[in-house]
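ok trying again, last paste got cut off:
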Amino acid sequence: MVKTKYKRVVLKLSGEIFGGKLRHGIDAEAIDLLADEVAQVHRMGVDIALVVGGGNIFRGISGTKFGFDRVAGDYMGMLATVINALAMQVALERLGIETRVLSAIVVEQVCEPFIRRRAIRHLEKRRIIILAGGTGNPYFTTDTAATLRAVEIGADVILKGTKVEGVYSADPMVDSSAKKYDHITFQELLTKNLRIMDATSIAMARENKIPIIVFNITVPGNLIKVVRGEKIGTLVE
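nice, full thing came through this time. structure:
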């Protein structure tokens, strides 16, 4: 078995990753490529919990622009994460990987409710767990859900899979002079207001001493390199 730096990880995937080249909705090719990488890491002996966003389908806070009630919009966003979770489950199980979808909101026909002990038991049985529904509460992001679940299941690290190479001093898509950080502290992240995750999730990770690695998951092999301990992306601790 390949030696890895981390034994148990939470991999946070934004909804835009599921959208792939389509930018909206579900790109089956993007999900299949991602599932293949996740399966390889799983076969290396790493326990994996995926926390999925839903922005490729519906982003709760954006609904307020159209007159939606914020709470209703957030619940719609939570349901969108369930759709993404099921898509990822199908892709992983086509590769022979046993999975379970656990949701913070009850959708009992298609997934299990999130129960901490049950989630840990699935990991102990070498299943990948896919966590949907955010925290189950409005006004909390899926980034906060990722940190909360990492604390609950005893993860070694939170891996934030994005479309950029790491944390930058400014948006690299807008500012070509933006500086990439190889390492940054939680406090610096908050002080400089670098919005790679919301402040609640960062504060929770800092309090519980769980490092975060922000990296470009769309580059083949990056996920494997990260769990091996190679210097990919930005380490936040």
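cool. The mean pLDDT is 92. The chain has one domain: 8-236.
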